[in-house]
């Protein structure tokens, strides 16, 4: 860890700003961070990046951003942009929104080759399990509705890839690379030297999450015991929750940074291997504070007498992660349900268990189902082994979607600046946050928690920054990412929102000050100005399977076009960063005349060819939580008691 900090401090990429046609104030540092949201987030990233290029923030030989941080699907965008000149040219530097739209369509058509006609596995048929419901009232119960079709195709895809999320991402990236003629980029090492020329002065941060433990299944019929590899510190203490793992690239370093910087042993991670039974019981994981957690839940627990000496946690991917490996660990959204991560698996199911209705499924039956799920390796690769494609050993761990610890990737962005810049508090940070949210999700409890967690709020009252927290609306516990001393609630934030005429997007400008968060290495007193851009797009997170990929080609491409063509948003971006307003927009390509009439509408929102349910909020709940439906599919198939 000390070596890591020295390497970061040696980097000059975050201590100076790039010069461009518009002179940037020496006392201001520009940054960009983006939330996840699957394919919606990736394509939105293309649109926003092109708009930033129009604003003068990005060009063909430089950017004004000293760092860009992304999470989940947005990391599919950032890894392509940082490591493929061809992709950057066709997205960031696309000469017009129409050209960008055409590229988005090409990308989706190439991706369709991955979403091929898959074999239909019996395990993926949940029609009977859900009573034949199509989650709408328009079709007879005997016919599977559009959402169930999506669920089934998602499941069939996972089965086709043996449940291996990274293998799927590998194929997706490879198919896309054919579109822009850069077939070697997916296997390119994601380090500082391999960044493309325009981004050589910009640091890359990709949000991921490291599980508290990993399970090596028994392959010995004599003992029949599994091995659990626990992540801990040098003081023989084990972490009880999922940690932030930020893949960080600058001029002198490429590797993972964890939110363990407050540890008195320099934050070095250790592994503690022990034999465990292959059967699952919720009572075996009480030390991991199952839902709902006690008020005195701790981040660390003492290590029980160990069978083997502690070992240093091995550098993920041998210290030379490829583009695909980084993209996969940031986006493994179904990772919490991998039985290969015992405590995380149990924490995730404990929340579902508490919510059970007695007349739907008793806890005893649910427990038996969980045990059968735990016994099967079918879902193991939902989480990514830190040595993929090699199997995990007793010095390795598992990583999952960064959204499970922080969706907007703001703390890792500010933390990296504080860890690298000389006298960081002397300057003001200007951060554009692209919240690539789905339409109807803004007022959800989940969105509230993900945005308010950075502030002093009722949701984190009594919890010091960096301490244990588990929001009711979020699936797992993690270390509190509070980084601002300012108070905030949704009423206050809503009052700051400004709509954009003719668009679903909204923006807000916030002026805040950091507070100490020693887990991340964030100092108090940093002046931060935030331009929050909410996408509010009626595009689902999960675009997996032939049916939905075909139906989403046009809506996705239209979304990208509309972002890049939005003059009002361009003006707000320029005003926020202090760039001169656009004087002549006569060369802008107008949107096609039928852009707003090609899809049906529901409650005034585009209906995406019938894929939306009766309300945007209902769709967010149904499609956004398809991971739960898929998991329950597996539970149903594996549990003879159901």
Derived structural class? alpha+beta
Distance between the termini: 48 Å
Give the DSSP E fraction (strand runs of 2 or more residues). Answer: 15-25%
Largest sheet descriptor: 11 strands, mixed
How would the global form be characterised? globular
User: Helix content range of the residues, please?
Assistant: 25-40%
Q: On the 0-100 scale, what is the average pLDDT?
A: 85
Low-confidence stretches: 1-23, 128-144, 585-630, 632-642
Q: Total helix count?
A: 17
DSSP strand tally: 21
Specify Rg, calculated over alpha carbons.
23 Å
Secondary structure layout:
Blueprint: H1 2-10, E1 28-34, H2 38-55, E2 65-71, H3 73-83, H4 85-91, H5 97-112, H6 146-160, H7 165-180, E3 203-210, E4 213-216, E5 226-232, E6 237-239, E7 243-249, E8 254-258, E9 270-276, E10 300-302, E11 311-312, H8 323-331, H9 342-354, H10 363-375, E12 384-385, E13 398-401, H11 410-420, E14 428-435, H12 445-452, E15 468-469, E16 478-479, H13 490-496, E17 498-499, E18 506-513, E19 527-534, H14 546-564, H15 567-577, E20 601-602, E21 605-606, H16 616-624, H17 626-638
Parallel strand pairs: 1-2, 1-14, 2-3, 14-19
Antiparallel strand pairs: 3-7, 3-13, 4-5, 5-9, 6-10, 7-8, 9-11, 12-13, 15-16, 17-18, 18-19, 20-21
Helix pairs in contact: 2-3, 2-14, 2-15, 3-4, 3-8, 5-7, 5-14, 7-8, 9-10, 10-17
In short:
Helices cover 32% and strands 16% of the residues.
Features of this protein?
alpha+beta, single chain, 4-stranded antiparallel beta sheet, 642 residues, signal
């Amino acid at each position: 860890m000390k070596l890591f900090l020295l390497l970061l401090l040696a980097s000059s990429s975050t201590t100076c700003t790039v010069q461009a046609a518009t002179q940037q104030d020496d006392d201001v540092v520009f940054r960009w961070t983006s939330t996840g949201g699957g394919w919606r987030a990736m394509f939105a990233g293309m649109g926003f990046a092109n708009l930033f290029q129009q604003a003068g923030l990005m060009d063909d030989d430089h950017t004004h951003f000293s760092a860009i941080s992304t999470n989940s699907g947005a990391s599919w965008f950032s890894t392509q942009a940082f490591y493929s000149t061809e992709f950057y040219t066709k997205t960031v530097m696309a000469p017009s929104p129409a050209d960008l739209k055409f590229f988005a369509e090409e990308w989706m058509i190439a991706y369709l080759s991955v979403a091929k006609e898959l074999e239909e596995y019996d395990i993926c048929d949940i029609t009977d399990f859900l009573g034949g419901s199509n989650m709408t009232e328009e079709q007879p119960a005997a016919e599977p509705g559009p959402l169930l079709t999506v669920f089934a195709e998602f499941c069939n895809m996972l089965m086709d890839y043996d449940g291996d999320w990274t293998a799927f991402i590998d194929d997706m990236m490879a198919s896309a690379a054919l579109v822009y003629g850069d077939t070697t980029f997916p296997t390119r090492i994601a380090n500082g030297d391999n960044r493309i020329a325009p981004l050589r002065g910009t640091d890359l941060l990709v949000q991921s999450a490291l599980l508290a433990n990993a399970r090596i299944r028994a392959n010995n019929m004599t003992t029949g015991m599994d091995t659990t590899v626990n992540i801990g510190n040098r003081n023989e203490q084990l972490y009880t929750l999922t940690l932030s793992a930020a893949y960080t690239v600058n001029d002198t370093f490429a590797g993972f940074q964890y939110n363990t910087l407050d540890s008195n042993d320099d934050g070095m991670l250790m592994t503690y291997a022990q034999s465990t039974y292959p059967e699952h019981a919720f009572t075996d994981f009480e030390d991991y504070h199952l839902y709902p957690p006690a008020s005195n839940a701790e981040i660390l627990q003492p290590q029980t007498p160990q069978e083997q000496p502690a070992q240093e946690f091995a550098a993920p991917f041998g210290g030379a992660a490829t583009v695909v490996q980084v993209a996969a660990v940031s986006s493994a959204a179904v990772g919490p349900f991998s039985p290969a991560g015992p405590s995380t698996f149990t924490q995730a199911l404990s929340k579902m268990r508490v919510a059970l209705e007695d007349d739907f499924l008793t806890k005893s039956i649910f427990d038996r189902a969980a045990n059968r799920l735990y016994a099967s390796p079918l879902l193991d690769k939902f989480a990514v082994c830190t040595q993929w494609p090699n199997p995990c050993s007793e010095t390795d761990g598992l990583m999952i979607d960064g959204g499970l610890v922080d969706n907007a990737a703001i703390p890792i962005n500010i933390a990296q600046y504080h860890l690298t810049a000389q006298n960081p508090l002397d300057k003001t940070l200007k951060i554009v946050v692209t919240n690539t949210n789905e339409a109807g999700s803004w007022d959800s409890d989940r969105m509230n928690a993900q945005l308010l967690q950075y502030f002093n709020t009722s949701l984190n009252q009594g919890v010091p920054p960096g301490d244990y927290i588990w929001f009711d609306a979020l699936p797992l516990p993690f270390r509190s990412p509070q980084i601002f001393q300012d108070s905030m609630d949704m009423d206050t934030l809503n009052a700051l929102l400004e709509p954009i005429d003719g668009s679903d997007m909204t923006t807000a400008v916030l002026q805040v000050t950091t507070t100490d968060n020693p887990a991340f290495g964030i100092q108090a007193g940093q002046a931060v100005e935030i331009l929050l851009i909410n996408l509010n797009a009626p595009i689902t997170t999960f675009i997996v399977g032939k049916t939905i990929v075909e139906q989403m080609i046009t809506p996705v491409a239209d979304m990208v076009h509309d972002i890049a063509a939005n003059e009002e948003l361009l003006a707000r971006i320029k005003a926020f960063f202090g760039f001169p307003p656009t004087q002549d927009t006569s060369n802008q390509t107008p949107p096609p005349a039928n852009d707003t009439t090609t899809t049906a509408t529901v409650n005034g929102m585009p209906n995406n060819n019938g894929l939306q349910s009766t309300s945007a909020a209902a769709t967010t709940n149904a499609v956004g939580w398809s991971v739960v439906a898929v998991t329950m599919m597996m539970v149903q198939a594996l549990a003879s008691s159901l």
